[in-house]
Structure formats: C-alpha cells, structure tokens
Amino acid sequence: MAHIEDSKTHKSNLAYIQSTMQEPLLSREDEYAFARGWTEDGNEAALHKLVKPYMRLVVSTAKKFKNYGLPFSDLVQEGNIGLMMAANRFETTREVRFSTYANWWIRSSIQDYVLRNWSIVRTGTTAAQKSLFFNFRRLRSRIEEETRETFGVEGRSKVAKELDVSLKDVETMEMRLSGPDSSLNIPVQADEDQARSVQDLLPDDRPAPDEVIIGIRDGNTRTRWLEEALGHLSDREQHIIRERRLNEESKTLETLGEQLGVSKERVRQLESRALEKLKKELSARVTTPQDLFLED
C-alpha cells in the first residue's frame, strides 16, 4: 500500500527540496579542501559545507524510489545517512568528485531501507537479489513491449540471464512483487476442532541443534586459527590488519599512515606483506582451503 502524506508533511518536504536547490555547487578544489578539513582536522563546519550542496543529489535519488510506497521523508533521511557515510570515507587521493563518490553511498543506503521496509517478507540480501528486486519490473515491461507477448517462461529466462541470477530467483521475486503481504494466522481449515493456520503448514528451515553446535565449534576454531596467525605478524602489521580488515569501520591508508608516521604507500606495502604472511600461516593450519570458509 502506498504511503499518503498529509498536507503538513507535503509542505515540509517541498520546503526542504527548495532549500537544497538553493545551495551552490562546489568546485573540485573546494570539495577536497572541505573533505580534508573534516577527515583530517575534524572540522564540523567543513563537513556541513561539503555535504549541504549535495543534499539535492539525495532528493533526486529518493524520488526514484517513491513508487515503493514508503514515506518520501524517510527515503531522504536514509539518503542523508548515506551522504554522511560518504563524507566520512571520502579520500581526496582517489581523484574523483565527491558527488560521484557519494552517489553510490546514497543509493545504497536508500536501497537497504527499501529492502528492510517494503515488505514483511525478507526480499533478499545478496547483490544479485537486490539488483533483481530493483530491476525486475523495468525489465519485465521492456520484454513485454519488445515481444508484445504476455510475460512468461521465456521472459523470466531473459531476466535471469541479464541479471545473472537463477530462474528460480526470478520466479520467487515475481511472486513477492505481485502479491500483498498476508497474515500467517489466516485459518486454512473451518473445523474448529482441527483448526490450522498458514503458519502451521510452513516447513522449519532452521538448522538442527547439532548443526548449530558444529557451526559454533567451527567458528571458534577459525577464530583461533586467525589469532594464532596474527601472532606471527609484527605489532605494526597486526595493527594495520586489525584496523583495515577486522574492524567494522575500516580506517583509511592515509589515517593509518599518520598514526604510524609513514606514508600511505608504505602502509599499503605493509598491509600486502602482512596478508601474504597470514595466507601462509592459515594455509599451514588447514587440510583444504575450503576449511577456512563458512558453509553455505
């Protein structure tokens, strides 16, 4: 069901859109100066000057997702979160415009929000499934227009091939996008003595208790292997690997270079050498490389 905004919310959204369009765009030099002011000096004023001109990019991206029936203000808010994440991670050494870099973060943040809230049914988490979710309707319309036929097996196969997903994934997505959410408590038998609901007929796909225990044990083993392998690295190499690869918020090469008193290129060399050492140490602890990965 589409979200309908009240008049007050609609006016507020219009005022916000108008304010974003009034912000002048930045030159490349200004972008880089404000970005360095924020990432290197923590200057909040520089952060605001960097992101405000590109709130219009958030608005334009959010408009593309209005057809999913979610509040426009929420889409904009999620896009602004993506914009702030881009500002935190932007590196001037990449030699790209901030708007180009921020566009991916804005779109990704809004897409994640849509996937979390569009339906009570979990739609998909892999990159391929996300692409299928956001492109299925467009591709179906294009195929129907080109073939002038009702969308069927051949059309589904074309979608699967173009998006590099399985035919089963396409069929599942089509069902989810074509039908509304239904309660699992809807009765499927009229007999009160043997009343059953939809949820009573659903298979339990959760892993068995023994599989859970094995998974925990294997996970602990992999963690121990990694810690033992890290012990063969120097303190500086360990610090780089933990900050770059093992923390949820990865630090930039430039930031680590400042902390360690070396150049960004030197940090990259140390990271590469440390990864080779880790690969060698971990390979010595397993029978096959597959033992290092979680099972699907």
What do these coordinates show?
This protein is mainly α. It folds into three domains: 7-117, Four Helix Bundle (Hemerythrin (Met), subunit A); 123-180; 209-287, Winged helix-like DNA-binding domain superfamily/Winged helix DNA-binding domain (Arc Repressor Mutant, subunit A), CATH 1.10.10. The protein contains 13 helices and no strands. Helix 4 crosses helix 5 (72-89), helix 7 packs across helix 9 and helix 11 packs across helix 13. The protein is globular.
Brief rundown of the structure:
With 296 residues, the chain is mainly α.
Strand content: under 5%
- Envelope shape: globular
Helix content: 55-70%
Q: What is the count of helical runs?
A: 13
Sequence of secondary-structure elements: HHHHHHHHHHHHH
Topology:
Layout: H1 7-21, H2 28-39, H3 44-51, H4 55-63, H5 72-89, H6 98-117, H7 127-147, H8 153-163, H9 167-178, H10 209-230, H11 235-246, H12 253-260, H13 264-283
Which keywords apply here?
single chain; 296 residues; mainly alpha; Four Helix Bundle (Hemerythrin (Met), subunit A); Arc Repressor Mutant, subunit A; 3 domains; 13 helices; globular
